[in-house]
Amino acid sequence: MNNKLETLTNLFEGKEIRSIWDSENEEYYFSVIDVIEVLTESNDSAHYWRTLKSRLIKEGNETVINCDSFKLRAKDGKMRNTDMLDTKNIFRLIESV
């Protein structure tokens, strides 16, 4: 499992991508907004994600269906619900961006 985390870390050249380990499912989950921010260099990655999410839902894309929400510490220090995807679906998201 560490190999997946290393692969994503190398892909994003050390940029901060919040992730959590789900020991029950033995899978890493990655913050969608963080990945979008790194890929697009958007000033408002949350808005970008809402727009993309809406488009993907209309297309029937499974990536959005597989999106889970976990509480993570946001940049302002507060715990907020954050859309997260497992490794397989984060790569699908990358293909969509």
Report on this structure.
- By secondary structure, the chain is of the alpha+beta class.
- Helices cover 49% and strands 24% of the residues.
- The protein is built from 5 helices and 4 strands.
- The chain has a 4-stranded antiparallel beta sheet.
- The model has no long low-confidence stretch (mean pLDDT 85).
Record the SSE blueprint:
Blueprint: H1 2-11, E1 19-22, E2 27-31, H2 32-40, H3 45-59, H4 62-65, E3 68-73, E4 79-86, H5 87-96
Antiparallel strand pairs: 1-2, 2-4, 3-4
State the major sheet: 4 strands, antiparallel
Query: Helical stretch count?
Result: 5
Q: How many β-strand runs?
A: 4
Helix and strand element order? HEEHHHEEH
Strand content: 15-25%
What oligomeric state do the depicted chains represent?
Answer: single chain
Mean pLDDT: 85
Strand order of the main beta sheet, please?
A: 1-2-4-3
Determine the structural class based on helices, strands and strand pairing: alpha+beta
The shape is: globular
Distance between the termini: 25 Å
- Taking all Cα atoms into account, the compactness measure Rg is 13 Å
Helix content: 40-55%
Stretches where pLDDT falls below 50 for ≥5 residues? Answer: none
In short:
The chain is of the alpha+beta class and 97 residues long. It has five helices and four strands, in the order H-E-E-H-H-H-E-E-H. A four-stranded antiparallel sheet has the order 1-2-4-3.
Key traits:
single chain, alpha+beta, four-stranded antiparallel beta sheet, 5 helices
